[in-house]
Amino acid sequence: MIADIIEASPYLVLATADATGRPWNSPLYFAHIGLAEFFWVSSPDVTHSRNIAVRPEVSIVVFDSRAPIGTGQGVYMSAAARLVEDDETASRGIEAFSRRSIGHGGREWTTQDVRPGGGRRLYQATADAHWMLATGGGPDHRVPVDPLA
């Protein structure tokens, strides 16, 4: 079910915090490799990118915002995020991002599009834990889940 939710949604919500702990949420178009590596393209000057530079601990949620009330399900994750600066990860990440972009009717992306000084950079978050809502209700019944199960 985790894979279905992640694959179906073009956007994730990234929660970051600045050096003082002030929170910030950002909806971002994303691509993924497996169920733990997430990539997006952003300016290093936007709030979430500046926050990641000083505090890489983030949380992510992926969900279908169009689900009828009371029927939705989401994947919650804790992760470490970073600006991608190594060539190998940049190549893998931008390839996944480009493939997904094209699949959603967007444009092709290359490593040239996210090079230093170009205005936009590639970011990666690596999830270390996943949760979903337990069925049966309650105010907050998130249960840990194994993404490989």
List key phrases describing it.
Pnp Oxidase, Chain A; 3 helices; 21% helix; 8 strands; globular; 38% strand; 149 residues
Quick structural overview:
The protein has 149 residues and is an alpha+beta fold. The chain contains three helices and eight strands; from the N terminus they run αββββαββαββ. Strands 1, 2, 3, 4, 5, 6, 7 and 8 form an eight-stranded antiparallel beta sheet that branches.
What order do the helices and strands come in, and which of them pair?
Blueprint: H1 2-8, E1 11-17, E2 23-29, E3 31-33, E4 37-42, H2 47-54, E5 57-63, E6 74-83, H3 87-103, E7 121-133, E8 142-145
Antiparallel strand pairs: 1-2, 1-5, 3-4, 4-7, 5-6, 6-7, 7-8
How would you characterize the overall build of this protein?
- The protein is an alpha+beta fold and 149 residues long.
- The protein has one domain (2-145): Pnp Oxidase, Chain A.
- It contains three helices and eight strands, in the order H-E-E-E-E-H-E-E-H-E-E.
- A hairpin with a 3-residue loop joins strand 3 and strand 4.
- The protein starts with a helix and ends with a strand.
The CATH architecture name reads Roll
Residue share in helix: 10-25%
Domain module tally: 1
- CATH fold-level label: Pnp Oxidase, Chain A
How many helical stretches?
Answer: 3
Distance between the termini: 9 Å
Largest sheet geometry: 8 strands, antiparallel
Strand content: 35-45%
Radius of gyration, whole Å: 16 Å
- CATH superfamily annotation: Electron Transport, Fmn-binding Protein, Chain A
Tell me, briefly, the overall form.
Answer: globular
| Category from helices, strands and their pairing | alpha+beta
H-E order: HEEEEHEEHEE
Strand tally is 8
Average pLDDT confidence is: 92
Low-confidence stretches: none
